[in-house]
Specification:
Distance between the termini: 19 Å
Largest sheet: 11 strands, mixed
Number of strands: 11
Shape: globular
CATH class: Alpha Beta
CATH superfamily: Nucleoside phosphorylase domain
Number of domains: 1
Mean pLDDT: 93
Structural class: alpha/beta
Radius of gyration: 19 Å
Length: 307
Amino acid sequence: MSAPHPASPEARDRLVLGVVGGSGLYEIEGLTEVEKVALETPFGRPSDAYTVGVLPREGGLPPVRAVFLPRHGRGHVLLPSEINFRANVHGFKQLGVTHLVSVSAVGSLREGIAPGHVVVPDQFIDRTNGRAQTFFGGGLVAHVQMGDPVDAGLRERLLRAAEAEGANIHARGTCVVMEGPAFSTRAESNLYRAWGADVIGMTALPEAKLAREAEIAYALLAMATDYDCWHQSEEEVSVEAVVAVLKANAALSRRIVRRVAAALPLTTAELPYPQALTHALITDPARVPAETRRRLDLIAGHLLPPV
């Protein structure tokens, strides 16, 4: 009997936690059995080597395998526009990740979301440009559903963990993702507020879209560092002010991640990931070029009939 395809549900029954760290989060604490894994992917090189290890689970359960990547590289060497999001997400898939927690620094667009507060967004507005948004193309077309871009089950666990850590939490919100690296103009900031957005960042997209295509559950832990420049009573955003709050937020985010890991179930049957490609592939399989099949094997190979 042949082994199941590595992207198939049968091969992904064990839950594996991924964590991608943004500004201020360059490692996670509590990992044991640690190794550094440098990968190449069909989409290029990820931001840095992955840190792979295990984190303890509560209730006497076996530890959970965990994979961490600093999205800006160690030492924060990559602009948001320089991040190879496709390579990063593909690398997580290569390492077996089924559920991905994204930690990101954001600016607040609401009076009630103060610096240091935690937002767990459920919606995004994409204002990026020039970033590769999909794994697909080159002869294979897919259209995944993104109406609810954040995985509800993983998002709920983030909320419970943040609450248990005593964070000031905002349970829902819309995150605008801008290109950067400059912060918004005041006119842009007020426009986003008029659209109903709550926070603004530079990295959650196309990360969330690619995770959906890779059939990885995705949730964002957005850590507010400042009021965006709409806030007339505040000075304009300064790097110094942001860095000061980043340091305070980093310790909180590490505690939240450890608490999430401790409560995770053993299997993906207990906390499913989105099987988003099941009805998303449009192309006649007979027309998919061999090279495209090879490049996309870990993404969609389980749904393509053998040649």
